[in-house]
Amino acid sequence: MTKENKNSLYMLTENAKKRLLELKYSNDTVRKFGQVWGKFLKYAEQKQIDEYSVELSETFLKEIYDINVGVKLQRKNYVKARAMQILTNFHLHKAISLRRKQKEYICPDSFKTEVFAYINYKSQNEISDSRLNSISYALKKFVFHLSQNEIKKFSELNNVKIHTFICTLADYAKSTIRNIL
Q1: Among the listed residues 87, 39, 84, 100, the one whose alpha carbon sits nearest the alpha carbon of residue 64
Q2: What is the mean pLDDT of residues 34-62?
Q3: Which of 64, 114, 123, 136 has its CA 20 to 30 A from that of 11?
């Protein structure tokens, strides 16, 4: 592996770590992912593979951790598979999917007027509380993502920024993605 390419794989992992911290992932989570990525860098160097690829990621998971993509994970393997999934998404889309465990997104102040006006408008349309909660969750998730990417108002949106948000949903079930969109 050439020094330049090793540095690009190294920089990919370093930039992914930096982005995780910007998204307020815990230091412990970033450390655990970093341990997996460190093994991945050594693996790529031993294989003399110069470029990041999904296939390389999947082979690494199989050979090092005996994890098969598409097969239900054992709890002990979740962090390892998630680390590589995050790295793949970051490599392909320069986006990291938001944590699923975060149930309540705080609506940034710069979006509160529009978000709450829209939620109020939807509540007047005789929809179920469940659907209203889904709409509220999706909208708050979206504006939270926008604020994390330094977008302060809807007028700053463009197709690329919307696409980046959609890429963060890649880990979700199709039905969940459809509901959020």
Answers
A1: 39
A2: 94
A3: 64
- What pLDDT shows up at residue 3? 45
Lowest-pLDDT choice from 33-47, 52-66, 89-103: 89-103
- As a whole number of angstroms, the distance between CA 150 and CA 156 comes to 10
C-alpha to C-alpha distances, 27 to 17, 31, 32, 96, nearest whole angstrom: 10, 6, 9, 16
Cα→Cα distances 137→91, 98, 108, 174, 177, Å: 27, 13, 13, 17, 12
Question: What phi, psi does 137 have (nearest 5°)?
Answer: -60, -50
b/e burial code for range 119-131 (CB count within 10 A of at least 16 → b):
beeeeeeeeeeee
| Contacts with 36 (C-beta within 8 Å, 6 or more apart), sequence order | 79, 80, 83, 84
Of 72, 78, 93, the closest CA to residue 33 belongs to 78
